[in-house]
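Worked example 2:
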Amino acid sequence: MAITGQAVSQAATERPARPRESASRPRKALTIGAVCKILQSEFDDISISKIRYLEDQKLLTPRRTPGGYRLYSQSDVERLRIILRLQRDEFLPLRVIRQELATGHEMDLGAERRPAGNAGARRAILVNTSGSRLSLDEVIEETGAQRELIAALEDFSVVSPETRDGRNVYDETDREIVRVANELSRFGVAARNLRVFRSSADREANLLEALLGPSLRSRNPQRRKEALESLESLAATVSHLKHLLLVRDLRRLAGD
């Protein structure tokens, strides 16, 4: 699965102004509690359990003291900040973030990891790239969403879990949808209101299928590979167009 390095580069370089440099760029090794406190001003949902979960997912590798306590370096904190930004701002699943960070891109702040290349938006994430499965309790723990919200999202087909051994299991895309829906719920947006997004996504997917369906079903590996690349590129272009249309309408709403 291919995505551009633009999202990681932006996550590394876009830093909010902070009054104290020592708070945003610690020089000494920090405990997990101190790291959590540093990042709370930027990430409301950060918690010690979430940091531990990211470590379990092999995204973080802080050093350990002889007594087993975690100690985070400056680079660990910056890496964690990038991971959290990619989750929050780019809606990237952990699997994709792990793959992107494993490509060898340096984590130095402001470093350009890939040439700008095309002027288009970043590539889309294909649904079938999500391999891990989460239980309902895990989704709740990671997103902070209520069970009732997740049940409503399922009722309106916004989230579509699989059933395994009599239990619902969710992929990373489902989890990120729940995360976004939970954020919108704070503004009074109910699950039923999200049907418009689901309908729009279905229409866009149908359009792309009409354009690339035969090639995607081809038995020729090279043709299928090219079709997948085109699908990602087109999906990103469609997403960018939708964003531009929304920006235009919001400007009108704001009276610009």
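The CA atoms of residues 250 and 256 lie 9 Å apart. Strands lie at 63-64, 70-71, 162-164, 167-169.
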